Amino acid sequence: MRLLRFIEFLRRHLKTVVRLCLVLLAALVVIDAIPALVDKHDKVHTWAEAHLPGFWSLFGVVGCVLLILLSKAFGRAGIMQREDYYDE
Amino acid sequence: MSDFWLHPALILVLGAVLLPWVPERLKKAYLLLIPVLTFLRVWAMPHGTFGQVRFLEWVLVFGRVDALSAVFGYIMALMCVLGTLYGLQVREDGQQIASWTYVAGSLGVIYAGDFVTLFLFWELMAFSSVFLVWYRRRPESLAAGFRYLLVHVAGGLLLLAGLVLHCQARGSWAFEAFDLSHPTPAAYLVLAGFLLNAAVPPLHAWLPDAYAEGTFNGAVFLCAFTTKTAVYALCRGFAGLGLLVPLGVIMALYGVVYAVLENDCRRLLAYHIISQVGYMVAGVGLGTALAINGACAHAFAHILYKGLLFMGCGAVLHMTGRSKFTELGGLYRKMPWTFVFTLVGGLSISAFPLFSGFVSKAMIVQAGFEQHRLWAGYLLNLASVGTFLHTGLKVPYFIWFGKRQATEETWQRAAEPPWNMNLAMALTAVLCVFIGCHPQFLYRMLPHAVNYQPYTAYHVSETLQILLFTAVGFFLLIRKLEPEATISLDLDWFYRKGARVFLWLARRPVQWIDTQLGEAYRLAGLGPLLRSARAIGVFDHRVIDGLVDGLAGMFRRTGDRLRHVQRGAVQESLTLALALAAVILGFLFLR
Questions:
Q1: Domain boundaries, chain A
Q2: What is the ipTM of this complex?
Q3: What are phi and psi of B432, to 5 degrees?
Q4: Which residues of A fall within a CB distance of 8 Å from B477?
Q5: What pTM was estimated for this model as a whole?
């Protein structure tokens, strides 16, 4: 199983994988800030998108955290119930 | 009236009818042949209006083939091939018959040119698809199936009422766009019927309730046809209805919020159907050429990647018997290829560049921004965050990685699924990547001419930032996302608990009133009734019988007397008669 060996390989080198991912993330923000690479002219919709480098990165991470926290709070407010809730 | 025109649904229906008589050794080939024939028929169908039949006072139009119906018909028929291949080893004709009839219903709706035909096929879909839930044969599936059917019957009645009112007022049953500048109550009824099938909150709870209870292969069909057929109907009838934009955005976020809480992987995917259909509904509401193209393209891409995701999770369910995150985990050792295919589905639904969602979803978001509905654009992007969070990260992570929570028995059972399931997943995955890499293949089929380029540096940068930084959020808060063995209450609570209130009402107050009324009747009603009956009996015996008997006796006695008076002497009788006449005449004269 070559696929399985590949997954195991990635898991063994998890630290390196994580570091590579962090480099990729940083590169994304940097590239976004270079007008020669990412042309924002005519494409942005608001001031923030045009002038904040990495606006969408912020959007992604803040949106993700907000979604998780607010949804969990919603769930805790009585929406999440034990599994036999509907049983007689 | 046109010549004979072979409706693709007819191939499926006839194929389903003949299926039980096909010999066992030919069955697999036959199971593949019929959907492939249907697909070829759909693929080769020229545009135009066909299959017009006069029936009573209506002209039924079975085959309206235009750009809009063609793209939906194409993907439905393609999904039928993939879904049947996936469930090829199922040795239960009933399941195959149900799924083919279901697809036939969907194709019937898509090509229907009038509302009578639309309604008939609409109901065919509801009544055939419920078997895909029932065939799982769990008590929960039976109950969920009945709830599904009842909700759809209610929706069908709304639709029918709306259609009758609308068509009576308009004098025509043709399925055309509704007049959105002056929407009538009838139009709103029809809209409600469509929205119920599209699972728009608050009419959505049937979807996660039923789809999570479907059979492993039935869910692959369920996830594709009902909601996307409704999207087609909305595109045809209500394109540009502003109300649909906020509804779609609410849907997109609603599904995402519930997906955070969900522990069952197939129910999580079902909530993501609601979320994804939200994009399409918003696109229909925006109504511009770009938005309608986006809605159609997204429906097309969605059917493939959602089918793929349900195939992946269905394979896990089929092989392990489990679908809850709290009963799985660490499966990458046992089912690595299923993991890869599901991941492709997850990346496609999350709209990663080079995957199908990227080229379709962006059209809708772009249309929102172009119409200066910034809130819609941003909120739909927020829903993308949630989509990747769950389908791209949570589902693969907690099934194939994460803590191994499976019992020893589950772990032993886990293995790669049979070849046909793997092949179906591989083909679907290839299609998802193909569309992502060659969007023109999809764009050429869309109803409006496409002048849209998804692969701009800004769009790729925007999408990668949103998605990869979502992953940062995921790994930061992974503790919060640990699955919990709970269920989440949704609006089906009202009819599930409501049914109990109804039962309680019937058992307690209504039963009590009934008993009391019975008792009161016995005491106050029955005694006097018996007495009055007795009195009537006496009256009948004494008075009525007496009167009748008395009269009879009187006649008998009078007759007897007359017999004695009459002695048979004719002259005597004549004299008497003449005398009597004389007396009367005299009396008259003298008066």
A1: 2-79
A2: 0.92
A3: -60, -45
A4: 64-65, 68-69
A5: 0.86
